[in-house]
Amino acid sequence: MKMENTQTDVAPVEAGLIIPAGMDTAAPAGPWRAWRRTDTVWMLSLYGTAVGAGVLFLPINAGAGGLIPLIIMAILAFPMTFFSHRGLTRFVLSGKNPGEDITEVVEEHFGSGIGKIITAFYFFAIYPLLLIYGVAITNTVESFIVNQLHMSAPPRFVLSFVLVAGMIAVVSFNQQVIVKTMSVLVFPFIASLMVVALYLVPQWNSAALETLSFTNSTATGHGLLATLWLAMPVMVFSFNHSPIISSFAVAKREEYGENAEEKCSTILSYAHIMMTVTVMFFVFSCVLSLTPADMAEAKAQNITILSYLANHFHAPFIDWLAPIIAIVAITKSFFGHYLGAREGCNGIVFKFLPGTRNIKLPLLNRLTALFILLTTWIVATLNPSILGLIEMLGGPVIAVLLFLMPMWAIAKVPAMRKYKGHTSNAFVVVIGLVAISAIFYSLFN
Questions:
Q1: Which residue in 182, 208, 191 sits closest to 17, CA to CA?
Q2: CA distance to 95, 197, 247, 250, 405, per residue, from 409 (Å)
Q3: Is residue 22 part of a domain?
Q4: What is the largest CA-CA distance in the chain?
Q5: Tens digits of per-residue pLDDT, 90-113?
Q6: In the prediction, which pLDDT does 370 show?
Q7: Is residue 5 part of a domain?
């Protein structure tokens, strides 16, 4: 089958790649299975969306449990990431009309009532991440001021307000400039992570080898299964790139038509191999250069792994580079998720409060910004456990949308039933349920 040259107006900005509208990014006409430049762009975009601030907390939760849970998580990383995101991609592609995004496909398959519920879930899958990033940026900057600049940090309620208000003001004032600026920082950020991982290699020690136990994790006090259970929401959070999946599926359906599903699966597989190898190398390098007790201390301090490494080794190179990487990563992630949270919040207002449809969008955006500012500032000032927030809010809600909803659609939606009966479906459901159930373990313990 031949494909004509096409032009695309789709710019995968969520991941940090900007393609000017009207730029011809398609390869010359040829078999649809041939790899195109647009395929490379989307592969890197998927990678860039997943590899962000969440990765900076994964080593802490994964490493505190010892080496055995970490090895098991490394084995699970690719299948749980690939099968879940492939399922969500297939769900978006199952809509009758090309160009339908995920919210439209949900309404088509499940009706307007479920559509409202999914819109609410979409908001609550993203909004808690802003709270997490508000706490993280405050703690990272506070640690940088105290440990690297050797100055006294300002009162926490002042510092958190300045940082959160500053980020919201910047992203609200000139959205396109910020998105383009942050997009330029994505790949240097990834390269910096790899540089840090390689820099830590001479610091590797045998402390992690002493935790080779299938019964108990020395630093956490939990058994192996409980350690894996509590780490699952953080894994889901760290490898999540569901916000870009809808745009990805729509763009590839426009480009490849009926062959989009197979092509999307190929692109996803390459992207997930890249992110699994690089992220897990970074995680292993961090874990092998510290001890489980160090990881537990980093969790207690409520800071990213990069901030802890800077304070722990006091080497000039990592002392300054690590906190700067962390600040860039958190800021980049906040900007990207703020836009999604604002969209979700506006959608809730319009769908659940019909009388508000006359409100002008600029005014609604300002009201949403005020709500996010006040709530994020309060949470950042209170300084709850970041990993606790991920375990209780971020990971479980993401798991509902990413793991369970597409599998439910396979069972209920005629257009999805061709994917029924695959072992991978059961695997995705189990991982999703484990991630969701971790919230109950956290609440009762």
A1: 182
A2: 12, 40, 19, 18, 6
A3: no
A4: 66
A5: 999 998 888 887 878 888 898 888
A6: 94
A7: no
Condensed to tens digits (0 to 9), the pLDDT of residues 167-191 reads 998 887 765 566 566 556 777 878 8
d(CA 156, CA 85): 38
Of the listed ranges 23-32, 304-313, 339-348, 361-370, the least confidently predicted one is 23-32
356-407 tens-digit pLDDT? 667 787 888 889 999 999 999 999 999 988 877 776 767 777 888 899 999 9
Neighbours of 241 (CB within 10 A): 25
Instruction: Look at residue 292 in the predicted model and tell me its pLDDT.
Output: 80
Instruction: Judge whether 91 lies within some domain.
Output: yes
Helix axes 260-289, 305-313, angle to 10 degrees: 30
- Number of domains, the chain: 1
Tell whether 128 is covered by a domain. Answer: yes
| Domain that residue 398 falls in | 45-444
262: pLDDT strictly greater than 50: yes
How far apart (Å, rounded) are the C-alpha atoms in residues 289 and 284? 8
- Which range (58-62, 126-130, 211-215, 334-338) has the least confidence? 211-215
The answer to whether residues 117 and 125 touch, using CB atoms and an 8 Å cutoff, is: no
CATH code for the domain of 352 = 1.20.1740.10
3-state secondary structure the chain: CECCCCCCCCCCHHHCCCCCCCCCCCCCCCECCCCCHHHHHHHHHHHHHHCCHHHHCHHHHHHHCCHHHHHHHHHHHHHHHHHHHHHHHHHHHCCCCCCCCHHHHHHHHHHHHHHHHHHHHHHHHHHHHHHHHHHHHHHHHHHHHHHHCCCCCCCHHHHHHHHHHHHHHHHHHCHHHHHHHHHHHHHHHHHHHHHHHHHCHHHCCCCHHHHCCCCCCCCCCCCHHHHHHHHHHHHHHHCCCHHHHHHHHHHHHHHHHHHHHHHHHHHHHHHHHHHHHHHHHHHHHHHHHCCHHHHHHHHHHCCCHHHHHHHHHCCHHHHHHHHHHHHHHHHHHHHHHHHHHHHHHHHHHHHHCHHHHHCCHHHHHHHHHHHHHHHHHHHHHHCCCHHHHHHHHHHHHHHHHHHHHHHHHHHHCHHHHHHCCCHHHHHHHHHHHHHHHHHHHHHHC
